[in-house]
Design goal:
The chain has 532 residues and is an alpha/beta fold. The radius of gyration is 24 Å and the shape is globular. The protein is built from 16 helices and 17 strands. The strands form four sheets. The chain has a seven-stranded mixed β-sheet, with helices on both faces. A six-stranded mixed β-sheet has the order 13-12-14-17-16-15, covered by helices on one side. Helix 4 runs parallel beside helix 10, helix 5 runs parallel beside helix 6 and helix 13 crosses helix 14.
């Protein structure tokens, strides 16, 4: 356990209120333009006590602690982060990503944060510590990353871990034996495994609840429950939870609220501003966006939580390595561009799937054109090279699971639907064939990449949940929409649907030409989807 500096400085409540109000004003002109059938509302921010904004690394050797005069066990395990509140508020969120200076005290003024690829740091003397001593406890490159993400989430502090699961594990450490955790019933499979096969061995009770239903949360919230952990939207069924309402229920019970906001990223949603105590990101996804680093981040609302998470990060040796931190710093610069482009593509894909004869249910948090809202007229299937044989009489309604009320709630606490969606076909084998027939989409367990990705959750991302306990339909397909041209994305999906309905047996080996694919007509798709 290496603790090398004093507690970070705190900001006043009035400063925090001003910061959040300014953030709302700066993001007004960044709302993504929605279609005329979509409901668009502003990003609602509520006051949270003791939040802080950006922090930066000060000049080297500024903080030195004399161990002859201070209690080693009371020293935090992460460097002090000074804040530049006024400078931060001069920039809009997308600009903050680009203009963040991770090393303002460096006399050489590098335009990119250097990689401190070192395990140890030389100390001033035998009894005096400098700002860093051992990279497991702190490293300037990691501090720059943690500082940037803390600013994006309007957090007191953030901590970078060597995986998203390591970050989630640190959060579960806040709950002791004999205490309880409430978790979303629709949850990432890895977190389910962590809770049911690791946390319970430490004497922690785990209860899975549909957190989108406040009555169920209220009924499960007992005095011994010390943590509520949820996702909104949930992965992969896109259920929406009222974060502010759950936060109020949790705090009235003396319970912490943790939100896994990986699917939204800090660019679209800020749960701490809605009352959450902790925010977790699998930085492997949108923060990285290039499928080249494994990482996780925990953002804390208060100094007390920051000290606890920092302790577990240091004690268990789960901090992110300097080079991986540098990769994330590089990738985050394009976060706004990637997230907004992928979200715009996802809305077009959702509109396409909402009228497709092969789709029975569609799960998406963003706006979807509704034919019933256009003067009763049938909305034609979006024209593309793969649908020349489309006949309006063949259109059948798709069950869009996102209700109008849930969509409005989501838009009040976020800035869009994101780029992850899922759908059902009604037939497991048809879904498998469709996924195997994709060419532009890569079959992977992750999401949030520049590339469009596809998987069947029951076979990949959520396979760790026993089949008898899964609440997911077996035919569910999850797609993560990338930043390619949306026309190529739609064409690849349509080609995959037709290939799945063709008589070809091995989808991964299929090499059909345009003419070959078009021999499988729209009515044949329905014929292929026989009841299971």
């Amino acid at each position: 356990q290496h603790r090398t500096s004093k507690e970070p400085q705190r900001m006043t409540d009035s400063t925090v209120t001003s910061d959040l109000a300014e953030w709302r004003e700066l993001t007004k002109d960044e709302e993504v333009e929605q279609s005329d059938s979509a409901v668009t509302t502003g990003f609602e921010i509520t006051h949270s006590d003791q939040l802080e904004s950006f922090a930066v690394i000060d000049a080297p050797n500024t903080y030195q602690r004399d161990l002859d005069k201070e209690d080693y066990e009371k020293l935090p395990s992460y460097p002090e982060r000074q804040h530049f509140h006024e400078h931060h508020l001069q920039m809009r969120p997308a600009t903050q990503l680009i203009c963040f200076d991770g090393c303002p005290g460096d006399k050489n003024h590098p335009s990119s944060m250097p990689i401190y690829q070192t395990s140890t740091f030389v100390q001033p003397s035998a009894s005096v510590f400098g700002p860093y001593d051992y990279s497991r406890s702190g490293n300037p490159t990691r501090t720059a990353l943690e500082t940037l993400v803390a600013g994006l989430e309007v957090a007191h502090s953030a901590f970078a871990f060597n995986s998203g699961m390591a970050a989630l594990n640190a959060v579960t450490r806040l709950v002791q034996a004999g205490e309880g955790i409430i978790a979303s019933a629709d949850l990432y499979g890895g977190m389910y495994r962590l809770l049911t096969r690791v946390a319970v061995r430490n004497g922690v009770e785990v209860h899975f609840v549909d957190t989108s239903d406040l009555a169920l949360v209220r009924a499960a919230l007992k005095p011994h429950v010390k943590l509520i952990h949820l996702e909104s939207p949930s992965n992969p069924l896109m259920k929406i939870t009222d974060l502010q309402a759950v936060a109020e229920l949790a705090h009235a019970n003396g319970t912490l609220l943790s939100v896994d906001s990986t699917m939204m990223s800090p660019h679209l949603q800020k749960p701490l501003s809605l009352g959450a105590d902790l925010v977790v990101h699998s930085a492997t996804k949108f923060l990285s966006g290039h499928a080249d680093v494994i990482a996780g981040v925990v953002c804390c609302r208060t100094a007390e939580l920051s000290d606890q998470i920092a302790f577990y990060q240091n004690a268990e040796g789960t901090a992110l390595a300097p080079f991986d931190c540098w990769l994330l710093l590089r990738s985050i610069k394009t976060l706004a561009l990637r997230v907004e482009r992928a979200q715009a593509n996802a809305e077009k894909v959702a509109a396409f799937l909402s009228r497709h004869p092969a789709v029975t249910k569609l799960h998406y948090a963003g706006p979807i054109p509704n034919p019933k809202k256009r003067d009763g007229a049938v909305v034609p299937w979006e024209a593309n090279p793969w649908t020349p044989d489309y006949d309006p009489s063949e259109q059948r309604p798709v069950n869009i699971t996102m209700t109008h009320e849930a969509h409005q709630l989501h838009m009040r606490q976020s800035r869009g639907g994101g780029s992850l969606l899922s759908f059902e076909t009604g037939n497991v084998e048809f879904s498998r064939r469709m996924v195997d027939a994709c060419r532009l989409f890569k079959i992977t367990v992750s999401f949030g990449s520049c590339n469009s990705l596809v998987e069947m959750p029951c076979l990949l991302s959520h396979a760790s949940i026993p089949a008898e306990r899964r609440t997911l339909p077996e035919d569910l397909i999850r797609v993560s929409i990338g930043i390619e041209d949306h026309r190529d994305i739609v064409e690849d999906l349509e080609r995959a649907f037709r290939c799945a309905a063709s008589p070809v047996k091995r989808m991964r080996d299929i090499e059909l030409s345009y003419e070959g694919v078009m021999k499988t007509r729209i009515p044949d798709i329905r014929a292929r989807q026989q009841p299971q």
